[in-house]
């Protein structure tokens, strides 16, 4: 049996990061992975400008009643400042050559002749944003391998970029196996259960940022499974299935992958979880998740998510682990396996703490829908209230 | 000047939660808001079933060499167990009537005659998952007002639901104002700047779960702005603009909203930020963000996001605030305004701490793209390293 860390490292080693890239219009790059660093091609702001609505002047010219010689709105270009005068100026408008300070309008008074007097003495540079103060030409503003967020797009726009180079989406084909699976909405025949895996796995992969190809459900049939694997390998970078990878003789996925490519089948020392398959079919990676929904969910989070994130080309593939105090006891730990308990981080009297979902043994997704994270215990690690535990926040899903 | 809390409470009071709902196929409900609680219409699992691959038997019948009288795969229905025999059974398969335990196959040995012997003595109930153990018929499994995540969809599928009732998307129309705005990709004319607001605001609203209607950019023109407001009110639940709401005389948005509906214009005591407009035009809410990108970004996060989340119908509208130790000093706090510093939560030697983006005064989005959260200081609150600060994690964007 492989330890959790061994299995994770083994998978991460095999994750060849996506490298093919394409330029996309800025608004279509949201949530995509930046393929190359972005450098600023210009200064931001592009010219010295006013950070206030007010009056621009030369400090040395300050006088009790100054003529207002021009009006500079944002978007217009000023004339050089006439000596001894002030310029009416608005936020964001360029500073007229010759001016060296802006006095905000609340500190200015216009008289009947249109001359302006000020209630303060300005210092040079006051209320002026300097050219290149925010972003200097040539500066790297976004690193490669980053998932682009809203502020990143705004930042790229502020230096005039209409497109960004992003990595191509990872195409993940998914199918489900099992004669006992019925689709929701249909009545259950004797012995059937609803295929819940399809309904959490597809959106979870979508949330991860993959292009998901849904190939549906196949019965416990070797030939049909082999055909589906070939179809999947033809269109996808990664194939993910749920079920059919334990040692029972009804599991055809194992045999089908072995016939079409190569397969490593592991018992990984995690709970819930345990069976996990990795293989290759043609150019595609194959990942077989356990069919129990909770086992599959936890295995996706803890083993497959880091693999897929690296495979997608993200520079930060691994989850961020926090330390949070337990608000529960867990007195009979599994001695062989790392346990991933479904927990919720809540604010208690003593600060943040982890609450435990009471039914950890269940195969139903209730615990996963309730939880916002996993408490990661080493084999044999018992918990008493107050213990500091490793908390693995569930990604956006 | 309104305090931050006053402005937030005032806005939240005015947010009438979305109530119109529609049923959607399960896979289309990901990220949508559940309109009604979901109750389980059946037991999960629907019948007692095996949690292992192995042999089902009646404990009292245990004998050294037992005949295997039937074979029960997942998806099939078993016959009543023939007395004195065992049934070959697989994970998830229904327990034959009469059997009361399952022995895992690793603890069983088949002899040449096809009889099975066991290396353990089973106890009643062993390796059997009981009907309704995971979800009992009639139980509420998902509450109304919840943003549906992947596990929720799996949970709904496991009780056979093909559709869920979700709230209609909040339609948010967005436009931008200013003669000085140029679109990225075009050369900058004298005095122009790139419209970065469009490129962070549209994806940020999309990430919040709104249906975003992009109405483009309008120059500093009162009639054109009025027309755009009427167009927006005809199609949207909420209108959001950036810029044009400060007191400068070039700002036409204020006058346009006043002409077409009603407007409250505030100075909110936050930094960055300050001007914020709320109004109504016909049946639509109007929100005017400050035009400075960083001010707009922080105002969206701290004031508008809670408003929109409540308006969308989410039961948890407000952000979760953590306490995290400062790894920086901030010795000259603003005495009148709450400050929202752009920070990053990082693991230090003493645990999690907040690092400060060095250039807090900048108008460029660099700090917002770098940060993963905001440190929320009260007016006059200075910071020395080690102080416990309120940390507001930026939502997915």
TrEMBL record, chains A, B:
Keywords: Magnesium, Metal-binding, Molybdenum, Molybdenum cofactor biosynthesis, Transferase
Pfam family, one: MoeA_N
InterPro entries (alphabetical): MoaB/Mog-like_dom_sf, MoaB/Mog_dom, MoeA-like, MoeA_C_domain_IV, MoeA_C_domain_IV_sf, MoeA_linker/N, MoeA_linker/N_sf
Superkingdom of source: Bacteria
Pathway of action: Cofactor biosynthesis; molybdopterin biosynthesis
Keyword Transferase in annotation: yes
EC number(s) stated in the UniProt entry for this protein: 2.10.1.1
Catalytic activity: adenylyl-molybdopterin + molybdate = Mo-molybdopterin + AMP + H(+)
Cofactor: Mg(2+)
Top-tier EC class: transferase
CDD domains named in the record: MoeA (cd00887)
Family (UniProt): Belongs to the MoeA family.
Protein name according to UniProt: Molybdopterin molybdenumtransferase
Organism: Chromobacterium sphagni
